[in-house]
What does this fold into?
Amino acid sequence: MRTALLSALGLTLALVATSASAGATLDRIKAKGELVNVLMESYPPFSQLNAQNQLEGFDVDVAKAVADKLGVKLRLETPSWDVIAAGRWSGRYDVCICSMTPSQARAQVFDFPVNYYASPAVIVVNAGDDRIHAAKDLSGKKVGVTSASSYESYLNKDLTIEGQEDKPLSYPFDQVQVVPFPDDNVAFQDLGLGAGKRLDAVLTNLVTAQPRLAQDSKFKLAGAPLYAEPNAVAIEKGDPEFAAKLREIIDGLRQDGTLKRISEKWIGTDITQ
It folds into this structure.
């Protein structure tokens, strides 16, 4: 009898805990009066420090718009990308509006309620390099990427974009010497030293590459974009109420033109449709 009673009590507590977990993030946000968004400190034009040492950029403004819709303040946290992408935040962060590609591997630890922009992956090389003209030419080359990024997974030939399992990516190169960096800045510094000196190429987002190509004659694109890359809002798994709320907010920001205005402000064109 005692055993049966304890079992029933345990089941009841488990059901209560499961019920309490639904919407737990929204409850925490409302109680604290702030939304904690995690992103990279240096990933222009999506996030970067300005002259006043404040974070600004496309992702920052989108996160601000989401916080406004929730009726709370926004707090930004900037750990390293590998910490962000590892997930299992244990409540330290509420959301990643931080240019994360929804890969199948990441879907083991994240939910991706909604995509909010897309931009293709591209190869950037030193302007004096005539060896690399397409992805097939990366074979045996040293290619810089942000550590734990989707670009690193692509070069390792194990990137599957969540929701696009029926559209496998092509890998037209043999083994590549993948060189991970904490962010694109250091990778481009090494590429700028000269063709093949430290790096042969950098694989990154077209939008983040464009300002460097426009401002620095040391770099150029090599070939056509490699694949289309959606970027999604990411949250810890298991909170469908928070996921639904974020989907509702982002869809509203798209419909009322807010996402378009933010995109045109930082990127010069609309990448949110």
